[in-house]
Amino acid sequence: MVVLSAEQVRAWDRFTIEKQPIASIDLMEKAAMACVQWMETNRIVNQQQFYIFCGKGNNGGDGLAIARLLQKFNRPVDVFIFETGQLGSPDFQQNLHRLHTLPVTIHFIQENSPLPDIPESVLVIDALLGTGLNRPVEGRMAALISHINQYPNAVISIDLPSGLFADQSTLPHPCIHASITLSFQCFKPALLVSENALFFGIPVILDIGLDQRFLNSCTPLYEMTDGPLAKAILQPRLAFSHKGKFGHALLLAGSPGKMGAAVLAAKACLRSGAGLLTTLVPELERMLFPTAIPESMSILYDNRKPEEILSDTSIYKTIGIGPGLGQQPQSRDWLHHLLTHFRKPMVLDADALNLLASDVRLLEGIPPFSILTPHPKEFDRLNGTCSNDFERLEAALRMAIQHQVIVVLKGHRTFIAMPGGRAWFNTSGNASMAKGGSGDVLTGMLTGLLARGYAPEQAALLGVYLHGLAGEIASRKLGKESVLASDIIDSIGPAFLELESSN
Ligand SMILES: NC(=O)C1=CN([C@@H]2O[C@H](COP(=O)(O)OP(=O)(O)OC[C@H]3O[C@@H](n4cnc5c(N)ncnc54)[C@H](OP(=O)(O)O)[C@@H]3O)[C@@H](O)[C@H]2O)[C@H](O)CC1
Ligand SMILES: [K+]
């Protein structure tokens, strides 16, 4: 699935109109029909009354066509046209003309006319502005948007909540707070970043039949993971194999008082298919691991120099570093030792990233195609503060390209930036995973997949998708409030099975 900019969507529009061919007014009709069909399927059309706020561009044209199509449900529809003094786009005008023949009440919001009161039985449809937004809303339009936002009524925004820029930050400008956004054909970046969550509500993508041939020659801004993509990456576990075939991972995680993170990462690593695992464990915690996770071997370390304890790392396929590690000098020494002696892709998370942030020269020493898994705060410590989500996405992609690493920027829609310049938003997972330890599990999973033999980019896409799917499976059983990181681990197997059996 692709994520396109406003300009790319407009180009797709033009391509479709020319190649299919289809008249733009008919494309608008398809868009409006898709919206009304979605509303009918979701039993929204038996709503008592509709107020449809329309701009004078094609977004407004959509609104007028929707007003006309809603007639068949015999519900009162009021249309409020935001008067700009201009005629409006040709398709807007044509739909206004078609509407005049129907019993729809049309109001014009003039410069000085009072803004309409919105009765509580009304469902608001926002068709003021879409992808044609070319400046922050201000003046009367801003006043209307703030006016609508003051009411508790549900709002369905057409294509984009009015005032939202499709591919740049809208903050701090006004924007409609939609309950649902019905967007056409594909996601735009604005519908995937957490800073806009209040604006887009629940994003729904409606297929309006844009010509798929356009994608053959379009380099999407970003892409999205999905089941088929993840399934295509899955490797069979061949029958005649022995544990050595599935790689030996090394894990440097945990510190006195924070060994739980190490246990979670270790279990997740083995649950993700690694053949063998050795965990570097502080001497003080020697009794923990054999009981907590007997399947992992341990190397106990004390205050001696790392090279005295572990000089040869060549037997390991990969190394996961960070969960619960702490930032004391001993952890720094171990990180420095492993970065110096181990040149295959590794996984760096949590305190490993914080240690890198305190000495960015270490960034140069990261083996190419290693996977970094920062949450936004850890990323900003490493990269420098970003003022909004869009800046952070671009910075993550720059870091991936500059340091030839994979940056997994964790969040509701985790963003996976690749060294070659492509990037994916993840689509699996849910709020049940917003809990301590969830990131430790992801680190373990990625370490396990690298040990298992997946190429780093495949490991990142598959691991992030599976991690989210495991969270969904756990929340199906336990509900969204009660999922623990260990429940995600227990759901890794079922996630593999669900993915394998999906079509
Ligand atoms: N393939 C598709 O996705 C389809 C999308 N459709 C719909 O078309 C809109 C895009 O329509 P467009 O006419 O390009 O633009 P808008 O309707 O979003 O905006 C109309 C005009 O509003 C003016 N504008 C821009 N910014 C502001 C602002 N901050 N305040 C006030 N007015 C603003 C601008 O005109 P100016 O002359 O003022 O610059 C815009 O041109 C898309 O979102 C879909 O809803 C098609 O219907 C079907 C296919
Ligand atoms: K809109």
Automatic annotation (TrEMBL):
Keywords: ATP-binding, Isomerase, Lyase, Metal-binding, Multifunctional enzyme, NAD, NADP, Nucleotide-binding, Potassium. It comes from the Bacteria. InterPro entries: Carbohydrate_kinase_pred_CS, CARKD, Nnr, Ribokinase-like, YjeF_N_dom, YjeF_N_dom_sf. The keyword Membrane does not apply. SUPFAM superfamilies: Ribokinase-like (SSF53613), YjeF N-terminal domain-like (SSF64153). Bifunctional enzyme that catalyzes the epimerization of the S- and R-forms of NAD(P)HX and the dehydration of the S-form of NAD(P)HX at the expense of ADP, which is converted to AMP. This allows the repair of both epimers of NAD(P)HX, a damaged form of NAD(P)H that is a result of enzymatic or heat-dependent hydration. Catalyzes the epimerization of the S- and R-forms of NAD(P)HX, a damaged form of NAD(P)H that is a result of enzymatic or heat-dependent hydration. This is a prerequisite for the S-specific NAD(P)H-hydrate dehydratase to allow the repair of both epimers of NAD(P)HX. (6S)-NADPHX binds at residues 58-62, 130-136, 159, 261, 324, 375, 440. Homotetramer. Binds 1 potassium ion per subunit. Gene3D superfamilies: 3.40.1190.20, YjeF N-terminal domain. Residues 9-216 form the YjeF N-terminal domain. Its EC number is 4.2.1.136, 5.1.99.6. K(+) binds at N59, D126, S162. AMP binds at K410, G411, H412, R413, T414, G439. NCBIfam families: yjeF_cterm, yjeF_nterm. In the N-terminal section; belongs to the NnrE/AIBP family. Belongs to the NnrE/AIBP family. Residues 226-499 form the YjeF C-terminal domain. This is Bifunctional NAD(P)H-hydrate repair enzyme. It catalyses: (6R)-NADPHX = (6S)-NADPHX; (6R)-NADHX = (6S)-NADHX; (6S)-NADHX + ADP = AMP + phosphate + NADH + H(+); (6S)-NADPHX + ADP = AMP + phosphate + NADPH + H(+). Its cofactor is Mg(2+); K(+).
